[in-house]
Every structure is written in C-alpha cells, then in structure tokens.
UniProtKB/TrEMBL annotation:
Keyword Lyase: no
InterPro entries assigned: Aldolase_TIM, TIM_sf, TrioseP_Isoase_bac/euk, Triosephosphate_isomerase, Triosephosphate_isomerase_AS
One record GO biological process: glycerol catabolic process
Superkingdom assignment: Bacteria
Pathway the protein contributes to: Carbohydrate biosynthesis; gluconeogenesis; Carbohydrate degradation; glycolysis; D-glyceraldehyde 3-phosphate from glycerone phosphate: step 1/1; Carbohydrate metabolism; erythritol degradation
Residues that hold substrate according to the record: N10, W11, K12, G176, S215, G236, G237
EC number: 5.3.1.1
HAMAP family assigned: TIM_B (MF_00147_B)
Organism placement in taxonomy: Bacteria, Pseudomonadati, Pseudomonadota, Gammaproteobacteria, Enterobacterales
Subcellular location field: Cytoplasm
Alphabetical keyword list: Cytoplasm, Gluconeogenesis, Glycolysis, Isomerase
Protein's recorded name: Triosephosphate isomerase
Length: 259
C-alpha cells in the first residue's frame, strides 16, 4: 500500500518574524521540486499569518500546521484559539496530544479526544501524538500506553475518525534528547499501532499516516524511512535549521518505499 509520507516541522516556542522569513524562504527555494513527500511547518500561532503569506502563491508545496487548538468554538476563553480561526488563516494540520502539552498543560486523553473531534468537525487534520515515557518503556508498557491513548478517540469518535487524520508515534524519552528510537524499535510500535486500528477497520489502518517523532535528524532519518510502517516524521529541534530539515525531507523524498 502506497502512503505519501509527511514530514512536519514543529517549531515549538521558537522563532521571530525575521526567522520565519529566512527559514521559509530557504525551504521554499530548496523544496520546490519535492514530489514524493508532503511537507508542513508548525510555527508559533502569532506567526501563522506571516507564514501563510509567505507560503501561498509560489513554488514549494509546504502546508501550514498549528501546534494547538482549544476545544471551545468561541466565547470567554482568554488566550485560546478556535478551530474556525485556524481554518480561516489557512492551517491544514493541527498537532494535538504532544507530550509537552500533556505534561506542562495537564492535557489528558479526554481533552485530546475533544480536540480531535472539533478539528474533524471543520475539516482540519489532527496530528495525534502518542507515546510512552522512559519509565513506561522500561516497564514494557509501550503498547499499553499507545493503546490507551488511541482508545479514547476510538471509543468516543469511532475508527472512521482516523480517516484523514495523522498519528505521530513519539516516545517521550526520545523527544529533544538526541536519543532516537532505533528504526527497529520504532517499526515494532508503528506496526502495533497499525494492527490495532486494523482490528476495527483494515482500510483505515492501511491508509493512515503514522509519523515517527523523537530526535529525528539528517543522520537517522533515512534508516527510519526504510521501515514499512513509518510514514515520515514529526521533527522538533532539527526543523529550526533549514539545512537539517531539508536533509530530512530529502531522505523521505528518496526513500525507496515511498516511490
Ligand atoms: C517533537 O517535539 O515533536 C520532537 C519530535 O522533537 P525533537 O525532534 O526535537 O526530538
């Protein structure tokens, strides 16, 4: 089954207007010929409009992603951003369930499932991050944790909600540590995730994009992208430097399994 890989840069709390201009200019120039891979960037919210203005109407197929969204549609929710606002500004993908939001903002599986639902209701594509902590990994609970994090969405919205959605498997111990999962470790969990969804709907499972995230860089991406159930990457640190991000996109572009 052919799946078009997705390489997405999560800029987190980094950037400036100047940096947005520079990075997007470099990405657009170098990535204009990319054919086998979808590319997206998730700058901080305040730079989305600037990024959109730079991305539209030119060469280079780079989509816009947001790093968060509120579950409420409008009203007295100071500091929040609604799905309609993201849609209006040209966002396509929204990252939800990132371990940093689970940890620092105490988002639980229920809130994340609500976010998944509001995104689907307006046609935005959720990028649902799941993955185990170091302690859970050491206790052999990787699959149990991933299953639990998927179950809340599956139980409240049903498996069809995963049509036109993305899952990012991001072992928490690999995020920002320089210690990526090995391609074999990642593949094992990606296969588990796909098989688990296939138990409910084989077609949805075959089509769904499952990105790997956690210290992906120019050196390890090619091997990760050789794995049959790894469909691109969610990239943090290495997405802040054009050269590094471009190398990862090129590794996906050239990976045999994506041709
Ligand atoms: C992330 O935060 O989603 C991530 C994968 O970060 P890094 O690439 O820096 O590990």
């Amino acid at each position: 089954m052919y799946r078009r890989p997705l390489v997405m840069g999560n800029w987190k709390l980094n950037g400036s207007q100047q940096m947005v201009t520079k990075l997007i200019t470099e990405l657009r120039t170098t990535l204009s010929g990319i054919q086998n891979c979808s590319v997206a960037i998730a700058p901080p919210m305040v730079y989305l409009a600037q990024a959109r203005d730079q991305l539209v109407g030119g060469s280079g197929n780079i989509s816009l992603a947001a790093q968060n969204v509120d579950v409420n549609l409008k009203g007295a929710f100071t500091g929040e951003i609604a799905v309609s606002m993201l849609k209006e500004i040209g966002v396509e993908y929204v990252i939800i369930g990132h371990s940093e939001r689970r940890t620092y903002h105490h988002e639980n599986d229920e809130v994340i499932a609500e976010k998944f639902a509001v995104l689907k209701s307006v046609g935005l594509i959720p990028v649902l991050c799941i993955g185990e902590s170091q302690a859970e990994n050491e206790a052999g609970q990787t699959e149990t944790v991933c299953k639990r994090q998927l179950d809340t969405v599956l139980e409240t919205l049903g498996v069809k909600a995963f049509e036109n959605a993305v899952i990012a498997y991001e072992p928490v111990w690999a995020i920002g540590t320089g210690q990526s999962a090995t391609p074999q470790q990642a593949q094992k969990t990606h296969k588990f995730i796909r098989d688990y969804i296939a138990q409910q709907d084989a077609q949805v499972a075959e089509k769904i994009i499952i990105q790997y995230g956690g210290s992906v860089n120019a050196n390890n991406s090619a091997e990760l992208f050789k794995q049959p159930d790894i469909d691109g990457a969610l990239v943090g640190g290495a997405s802040l430097e054009a050269d590094k991000f471009i190398d990862i996109v090129k590794a996906a572009e050239n990976a045999q399994q994506y041709q």
